[in-house]
C-alpha cells in the first residue's frame, strides 16, 4: 500500500489533489485526512493557485468513505476525533477562498459523497455512483451530509437517499442536481481542467468574493444576502483587476488578472 496517501500536482494555476489509496477505494484514514488538511491549508495562501481539483486514484473509486478496517480498531473517543477531523476539514474545503471542483471518477460513498458535497462544482464520470449509505451501518452522515445534501437536492430527495442509504448512478445524480455534469471516464480530468481554466480566466478577487457571497447568502434571508453581495462587490471596486478588465475590453484583448 502506498505511503503517499495524497498526490499533489500544481500547474497552470490549478492544484490537483488525488486521494491515493486505490487498494481500498481511496477510503479515509487519519493519515489521508491529515494530508488533505495540510494541502488545503497550503493552497489557501498560495497566490499561484486559483482553483483546486479533488479526485481519486484509479478508475474504480473517488472515495468510499471511512476506512472501516481502521474504524473497527478505534475507541469511541477516537471515533469522535475522526468525525471532528473530517467534518472540520470538509467545512474548510467548502469555505476555501478558491473554487474547488470534485472530479468524481467512480464510487463515492459516505464520506466520499460528503467530500464531493463540500466542493463547489461536481463533475462525474458516467460510471460513478454516489450515496450517503451510513444508515446501513447504524450511523448517520457525520461530515455535513445531512446539511449539504438537502440544500443541494431538496429536503424530500435528501431524506429518501439518507434514510434508505441508497446510491444513485451518475445519470440520476445529474437529474437531481447532485452533480453539475457527467462525461466519459477517459474525459473526466479533461473536463475538470477545462472548467478550472475557465475560472482562471476570471478575476481571482471577483471569484473569491462571488463564492463567499453565494455561500454566506445561502445561509440567510434574501435581504441579508443582498447586503452580503453588496459588501462583496465593494471589495472588487478598488482592485487593479477591475481596471484591467475595463482596459482589456476597451483595447479588445484578453485581460491579465493578477489578483490585486
Detailed description of the structure:
- The longest helix is centred in the N-terminal third of the chain and has 19 residues.
- It contains 11 helices and 10 strands.
- It is of the alpha/beta class and 260 residues long.
- The model has no long low-confidence stretch (mean pLDDT 95).
- It has a 6-stranded mixed beta sheet with strand order 1-2-3-5-7-10, sandwiched between helices. It has a 4-stranded mixed beta sheet with strand order 4-6-8-9.
- A hairpin with a 2-residue loop joins strand 1 and strand 2.
Features:
four-stranded mixed sheet, 2 domains, 260 residues, globular, 2-enoyl-CoA Hydratase, Chain A, domain 1, alpha/beta, six-stranded mixed sheet, single chain, Lyase 2-enoyl-coa Hydratase, Chain  A, domain 2
Tell me the distance between the termini. 44 Å
Low-confidence stretches: none
Kindly estimate the percentage of residues that lie in beta strands according to DSSP: 15-25%
Whole-number average pLDDT? 95
Count of spatially separate domains:
2
CATH class bucket of the largest domain? Alpha Beta
Radius of gyration: 19 Å
Q: How are the strands of the largest sheet arranged? A: 1-2-3-5-7-10
Q: Structural class, judged by helices and strands?
A: alpha/beta
Biggest sheet descriptor: 6 strands, mixed
Amino acid at each position: 500500500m502506498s505511503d503517499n496517501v495524497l498526490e499533489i500536482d500544481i500547474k497552470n494555476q490549478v492544484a490537483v489533489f488525488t486521494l491515493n489509496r486505490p487498494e481500498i477505494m481511496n477510503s479515509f484514514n487519519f493519515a489521508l485526512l491529515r494530508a488533505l488538511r495540510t494541502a488545503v491549508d497550503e493552497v489557501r495562501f498560495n497566490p499561484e493557485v486559483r482553483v483546486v481539483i479533488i479526485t481519486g486514484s484509479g478508475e474504480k473509486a473517488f472515495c468510499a468513505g471511512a476506512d472501516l478496517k481502521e474504524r473497527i480498531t478505534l475507541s469511541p473517543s477516537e471515533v469522535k476525533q475522526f468525525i471532528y477531523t473530517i467534518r472540520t476539514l470538509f467545512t474548510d474545503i467548502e469555505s476555501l477562498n478558491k473554487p474547488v471542483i470534485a472530479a468524481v471518477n467512480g464510487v463515492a460513498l459516505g464520506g466520499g459523497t460528503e467530500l464531493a458535497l463540500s466542493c463547489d462544482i461536481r463533475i462525474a464520470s458516467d460510471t460513478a455512483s454516489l450515496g450517503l449509505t451510513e444508515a446501513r451501518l447504524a450511523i448517520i452522515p457525520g461530515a455535513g451530509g445531512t446539511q449539504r445534501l438537502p440544500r443541494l437536492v431538496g429536503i424530500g430527495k435528501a431524506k429518501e437517499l439518507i434514510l434508505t442509504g441508497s446510491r444513485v448512478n451518475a445519470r440520476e445524480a445529474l437529474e437531481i442536481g447532485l452533480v453539475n455534469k457527467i462525461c466519459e471516464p477517459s474525459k473526466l480530468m479533461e473536463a475538470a481542467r477545462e472548467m478550472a481554466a475557465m475560472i482562471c480566466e476570471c478575476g481571482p478577487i471577483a471569484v473569491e468574493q462571488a463564492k463567499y457571497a453565494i455561500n454566506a447568502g445561502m445561509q440567510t434571508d434574501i435581504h441579508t444576502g443582498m447586503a452580503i453581495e453588496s459588501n462583496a462587490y465593494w471589495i472588487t471596486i478598488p482592485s487593479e483587476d477591475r481596471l484591467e478588465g475595463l482596459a482589456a475590453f476597451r483595447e479588445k484583448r484578453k485581460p491579465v488578472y493578477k489578483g490585486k
